[in-house]
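re the bet — no i am not wrong, look at it urself. input seq straight from the record:
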Amino acid sequence: MGRVGRGKKPSKTSKAEPGVENIPVGDAKDDIEYLRTIIQQMTKTIAPLGKSMDFISEDIEIMTKEYESWKSRSQSAKSQLEEELRKTDDILQPLHDKLAEIEAQIQEQKEKIHNTKSRIFKNEGIIQGLLSSIISKCKTT
C-alpha cells in the first residue's frame, strides 16, 4: 500500500506531520488509522480556507460595486469641476478684457510720454541754439 504525505513512513516514535500524535505504524490497520488521522488533520487545516473561499466571490462583488461607486463619484466630480471652471472663465472673461484694455491704455500713455519727452529734448536743442546765436550776436556788437 502507498504512502500519503512526504518522506519515509514514520517510525513508531516519530510524528508524521506537525499536530499529529505519535501513531504506531506497521500493519494495514495502523496505516488506515494513520491515514484517517492525517485526513482529519488536513480537514481541520483546510476547512477555514474553504470557508474563506466561499466569501471571495462576495468580496469581489462588493469590491466591484465599491469601485464602480467611486468611479461614478470621480466622474461626477470631474464633470462638476469642468462646469465650475467654465463658469469661472465666463465670469473672468470681462475682467480679462478690461485688463487688456487698461494695459493698452497704459502703453498708449507711455508712448505719449515718450513722444513728449522727445519733443522737449528737441525743443531744448532749438532753444539752446537760439540762445547761443543771441549770445554770439550780443558779443559781436
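see?? Confidence is low (pLDDT under 50) at residues 1-16. told u. also Residues 23 and 40 are 14 Å apart (CA to CA). so pay up
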